[in-house]
Design a protein that fits this description.
Chains A, B: Keywords: ATP-binding, Kinase, Nucleotide-binding, Transferase. Chains A, B: Its EC number is 2.7.1.2. Chains A, B: It is an enzyme of class 2 (transferase). Chains A, B: This is Glucokinase. Two copies of one chain form a homodimer. By secondary structure, chain A is of the alpha/beta class. Chain A has two domains: 5-121 and 309-319, ATPase, nucleotide binding domain (Nucleotidyltransferase, domain 5, 2-Layer Sandwich); 131-303, ATPase, nucleotide binding domain (Nucleotidyltransferase, domain 5), CATH 3.30.420. In chain A, 41% of the residues lie in helices and 21% in strands. The first copy, chain A, has helices spanning 38-41, 44-58, 98-106, 115-126, 187-190, 192-205, 211-219, 224-232, 236-260, 276-289, 292-297, 309-319; strands at residues 5-11, 15-22, 27-34, 66-73, 77-78, 83-84, 96-97, 110-114, 135-140, 144-150, 153-154, 264-268, 299-302. In chain A, a hairpin with a 3-residue loop joins β1 and β2 (15-22). The longest helix of chain A has 25 residues, at 236-260. Chain A is globular and about 65 Å long. The two termini of chain A are 21 Å apart.
Amino acid sequence: MEQKWVIGVDLGGTTVKIAFLTIAGDLIDSWEIPTDNSEEGKNITIDIAKSIEEKLNKWNHSKQEVAGVGMGAPGPFDYETGIIYNTVNLGWPDNFPLKERLEAELGLPVIIDNDANCAALGEMWKGAGAGSKDLVCVTLGTGVGGGVIVNGNIVQGVKGAAGEIGHLTSVVENGAPCNCGKTGCLETIASATGIVRVAKEFLADAKTTGELQTTLNEQGTFTAKDVFDAARNGDKIACDVISYIAQHLGLALANIANILNPEKIVLGGGVSKAGDVLLKPVEEYFKAYSFKGVAQSTKLYVATLGNAAGVIGAAWLAKA
Amino acid sequence: MEQKWVIGVDLGGTTVKIAFLTIAGDLIDSWEIPTDNSEEGKNITIDIAKSIEEKLNKWNHSKQEVAGVGMGAPGPFDYETGIIYNTVNLGWPDNFPLKERLEAELGLPVIIDNDANCAALGEMWKGAGAGSKDLVCVTLGTGVGGGVIVNGNIVQGVKGAAGEIGHLTSVVENGAPCNCGKTGCLETIASATGIVRVAKEFLADAKTTGELQTTLNEQGTFTAKDVFDAARNGDKIACDVISYIAQHLGLALANIANILNPEKIVLGGGVSKAGDVLLKPVEEYFKAYSFKGVAQSTKLYVATLGNAAGVIGAAWLAKA
């Protein structure tokens, strides 16, 4: 009897991740191809289709044995039609019919969701959220992304703008400007770039010095990881920075939980790898700002799938 | 052919509201009976059953023509079993099997949800939320309650604690104590009692006087309505109070919308009747703190069903 596979595609500005999985979520194969942004991105869907077909041949698996293709893409887009309204990194003109094009190239049904949502679905299916149907994933990377899952399904919102966790307003007055046009967004504080920004502000105001100041003086700049390392070594300013970030992040997570009381909140992205130096104070603030019944039942976890979350969650879409 | 009805019951500490509706949601009859809290509340379910049976007889409508009974009750309880864990106003011992008792008395299937959720379902079915499957209701009364609806269903959360909008942490440091045990909850600011509390703080710190100060001096106290009236008459302190409240409420609503991007946020309860003096600044802050795509698509509305929302939403439960 034929074994049905699902295919996940995670479309990024520089590479496209692709994976074959069984319907049960066991990984068969995963690989990457470069994203060809030239000529208004016209080769992107062609390259993806060709690469999938070559791999299927290698595995001696026919298209009839594939249930479908799920794809995580940078939004915003129309969920029904699979048209991407606009994109900065992929070269496509506005209102690019991504779903239609890939279906035409590949001869398989394609379903699209945004990349942060796919990461959440991946963690729900095979990662830290496994076994839970109500969870929120917060990805703390260069930016802050989010995916909200209720009863096993992504919450899209009326215009696909649900899960904008990075744009929760954290600082009400005199907040730092955010790429989205607002000020004081969580992303300006709890992303890797936000942490560096906050730390530079704290250093500029500081009356003492220490490891982080020395790093800045010697290298001219530093990373979020440098902040965590300095705090682990007891640098006072770095500890204050982390306390500030943990308070804002803990508050945002608590308020998400006060609204949804999910079983799990899963923290992913590079910043989530900081470990206890960040996660312990985040958890303390989270509990302090959560309604009692929420603090007792909604738990924080660190994501386990890393970069593979998106492609696995995309494959999940094809299964549904 | 028999016409199926649904029955809604809204259980409060002093009265029980009951209504008959058609499956389509047309109101047939609605009435109230007193809540008998004596003898550990043992008559409550008996009284409800008796009252429903009398009314069915009056309408010459048999129990076979009733699809079921939905009930809004003050939580917290177990959704599966319909057991109320504990209740302060109803006299029942802990872990009271409400669903089982009422089903036994009445011989009809009973489904229970908390009262704030029922109000949200009522507004979705027949009120300001009609036609929308993704909405959040926020009831600004003596306290602040909430109901979150995604894809037409109430979000319960893992322990039934979703929708605790009143306990979103609004003031991070030195907030007022809340009945829930936390400090700085939205309820300490945007409920009718919270508005009075904030206004008294503002008056104590004020260097000027005005209408609200005069009311306080003459009557020894004042209501939230007095604050709105004074602001409409241009009282500077009352205007400052409302600006403060609107900022906190607008921020909370914006962050709800940034997470869920619902089609509608419906404001109910006595405070929502303040009109433009409150709603205009709330809307301004809401837009300022919302992610662009959210501000463009999530709209604020005032509830239209008043006190009937709960009983109508309870009836909706029986229909599902």
